[in-house]
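Changelog-adjacent note: as of this version, every example in the card shows the full chain rather than a window. The one below runs 463 residues end to end.
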Amino acid sequence: MLENKKSLMKKSGLNGYNIVSIMLILTALVTGYIFGGFQQKESAESHEHGTEDSAKIQIWTCSMDPQIRQTKPGKCPICGMDLILATDMEYGENEKDTTGRSEIALSPRAQRLAEIQVSPVKRRAVSIKIRLFGKIDYDETRISYISAWVSGRLDRLFVDYTGKLIKKGDPLVSIYSPELLTSQAELIQAIKTAKDISKSKVSSIKKTAWQTVEAAREKLSLSGLTKKQIEKIEKSDKPADHVTIYAPMSGIVIQKNAVEGMYVSTGTKIYTIADLSYVWMKMDAYESDMPWLFVGQEVKLEVEACPGEIFNGRISFIDPFFNELTRVVKVRVGLSNHNRKLKPGMFVSAMVLAPLSEKGKAISASTESTSTEKAKLPLVIPASAPLVTGKRAVVYIKVPGNKGIFEGREIVLGPKAGDYYVVHKGLKEGEYVVTNGNFKIDSAMQIMAKPSMMAAETGKGGG
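Full-length structure tokens:
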């Protein structure tokens, strides 16, 4: 049998060396299969652990666009704001949320990321600034017309162009008038008669004579002659054929209606003179400006012709009529102009400050109980604090005694005065309102599935 085995091995070409090699190969295949199974199991376990680790990956979101979810920090692709950690929106990751529906808890890091800033609610003096525009105009009470007091011929014009500055008492025209000749002759004759009967013993006759003289003087005075001119006529025995008319006031000739050689009748307009030492500023005020304007209010004015120079005046008149076409009311300010820098027609811009009372109304000299109104300052908050949505306004306040807790509250606002809003209802003095980051807080409320304070049904009123 041994010989048969040997012969079989010889026929198959196998020897002892080949058999050992085959056995080693089979052993290696079995070992690889066993260890390969362990490696696959270990890889599966590692994959499972990796899944658990991936579940702990931090999620970064945008406070303004909470639908943005990224696994790394960066900028929001919609609004460009810095992304914040979604888990950081809560005060504590492992703490139970005990805040109300209108409250939110933010960790110190979340407050820094959202750039939260607060400001106290306090009383302070504030004023509404009103910008008005208009132009300079003549003072209507300082315009005079130089007209012919008697009929005659204008033989000379001492002022022969518009825009000329004249002073009171300067000669204007030289007129030839038959009426003035007659009036002069009457005066001269009355004086002679009074002197002739001055030696009379009848007092009534002397009195009547001198009354006639006074009447003649009055007639010449009403014809435009000055007292000196009348005295000169009394000293002479011959009436003057030409009489000079003098300016009754100082000012600028803004209109000339006559020329030399022109015949005029009584009442004919010769010159128009305006006194520019005092001018009016006529400005337009809209309906929304009317509650803050009152007579006597101080106004600061600027004109382009005087850069850097401020003119101070006071409102002297508010037109009782409203212009339906332009939707404005005329407001007038009187202003001294002795140096004549201000010229009619110039455009002017004005700034009016209206101080507010506790109730948010303008304090004027006519306000009842003025001293009491001025003593009570209005309650105000910075203009950046409220989130205004139509007729509603909401703020976020820092809850006292609770670190990192912010509460949304609906308030009632008054007028806006510069950088502040007057508060009528909803806040108390000493509370702290969020002035920066309030939009981010409201977005965080939505991220945490809490109602937004911007929605009317979720607004929560306060004291």
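Structural remarks: The chain has a mean pLDDT of 80.
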